[in-house]
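Prompt: I keep going back and forth on a fold encoding question. Comparing notes only helps if you start from a blank page. Show me how you would write down a chain together with its backbone fold. Please set it down just below, with no commentary around it:
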Amino acid sequence: MYQGIPQNDIGIRTDVIENISKSKGMEMLIRSMAPEVIACDEIGSKEDVQAIRKSNKVRC
């Protein structure tokens, strides 16, 4: 993202969230959007792992 605009064509069925911590963003997505896939650049903190584990549909 640059100034709110995605810099890569990632498809029309894709949402990009910015300006929020990764763990909060994942929690928000899981709770409100029921995504099939959440892609992120890295899982780097305990909070990220906890957010992933909150969904019972997660396969690791």
